[in-house]
Amino acid sequence: MARRKIIPDTDVYAEIRRMIARDGERAVSFQTVARATGLAAPTLVQRFGSREAMVHSALAAGWEALEAATEAAEADAPLNAKGAQAFLKALGADTPEAADLSHLAADFRDPVLRDRADRWRQRVETAIALRLGGGAKAQEAAALLFAAWQGQRLWQPAGGKGFRLKDAVKRLSG
Predict the structure, then answer these.
(1) Residue 113 — φ and ψ, nearest 5°?
(2) Residue 134: which residues within 8 A CB-CB, separation 6 or more?
(3) In the predicted model, is pLDDT for residue 137 greater than 80?
(4) What is each CA distance from 135 to 26, 67, 94, 148, in whole angstroms?
(5) How confident is the model over 97-135, as pLDDT tens digits?
(6) Long-range contacts made by residues 7-16, C-beta under 8 angstroms, separation at least 24?
(7) How far is it, in rounded angstroms, from Cα 74 to Cα 90?
(8) Nearest 10 degrees: CA dihedral of 44, 49, 55, 61?
(9) Which InterPro entries does the entry link to (predicted)?
(10) pLDDT 10s digits, 38-58
């Protein structure tokens, strides 16, 4: 009979992503995750088989959460320029999914995660373009907004507050 999991995988995954965000992927080992979660290292080995599988599972779970958050943001954002801003704001909110944004693609050597990241980027750009009226000009503006937004997300923790998403949306949609 299988033992009941005291600490669910989702909690373990969240801790692994926090470790990656804080100290980089090299900080993740069975021992460090065991210390952080209170699970025994052999339990983690039994659950995941290898360190690489454990990290991949944690990042894949992060992508699943981000994709769900993206779907919710798409449903809530109106189909206009303010909706494009609201959509990106919702994805950049202080949620675990948003906090993971810059760390989910921690290792683009993994083709599965790299493809997932590219599909997500395309989905976000398409959602933005739809809110900017569609067409080639809107697609171009959406790609620029996505890049600017990602840059903002990357530099914000370092104190970069000069960029205002609202202003970029106005310039690109007007």
Answers:
(1) -70, -35
(2) none
(3) yes
(4) 43, 24, 32, 20
(5) 555 565 666 667 778 888 888 899 999 999 999 999 989
(6) 7/37, 7/38, 7/39, 9/47, 9/57, 9/61, 10/61, 11/37, 12/37, 12/39, 12/44, 12/47, 12/58, 13/57, 13/58, 13/61, 13/62, 14/58, 14/96, 16/54, 16/55, 16/58
(7) 9
(8) -80
(9) Homeodomain-like_sf, HTH_TetR
(10) 999 999 999 999 999 999 899
- Could you tell me the CA-to-CA distances from 160 to 87, 95, 97, 148, 174 in Å, in that order? 21, 20, 21, 12, 25
Spatial separation of the C-alpha atoms in residues 165 and 88, rounded to whole Å: 9
Q: What is the pLDDT of residue 155?
A: 65
102: which residues sit within 8 A by CB, 6+ positions away? 21, 150, 153, 154
Res 147: pLDDT: 87
Res. 164: pLDDT tops 80: no
Is residue 1 very low, low, confident or very high in pLDDT (cuts 50, 70, 90)? Answer: very low
**DSSP, res 161:** -
